[in-house]
Amino acid sequence: MKRYHVLGVTLLAGFILGASIPAHAIDAKFRAKLEHSGCTQVTEANGTCDPNKTKAQNRKAQRPTTRLDKAASEAESVINTPISSAAERLLQLGWKPNNGQWYKNGHILRLVVEDDVIVNAQLVK
């Protein structure tokens, strides 16, 4: 019985020691490469970011590709801006206002405004 107790204590000690040693998923060289490229492990793994490119190259490659992506990007660009600046920007981007909503390429943009600042933008297809 004492033998099983010693074995259990030894296994428990080994488990605790193993759990306390930090595990490094990536080495310092690869971590530096990710930082230089602006990538994360997730974006590198899903193919939306190339760690062999610079941050600027990756940012350029991530530009919106569909009309919906572009509309969503434009909607996000006016959040936390004064309504007057946002309206000017949306007009420059080709959005057309009508009864408190904005229209472009079959999309409808609804702005949520508090204290003359846009706090949310809802895009409807």
TrEMBL record:
Domain of life from the UniProt record: Bacteria
Record's keyword terms, sorted: Signal
Composition skew (Polar residues), residue ranges: 45-55
Region (Disordered): 45-74
Signal sequence annotation: 1-25
Name of this protein: PepSY domain-containing protein
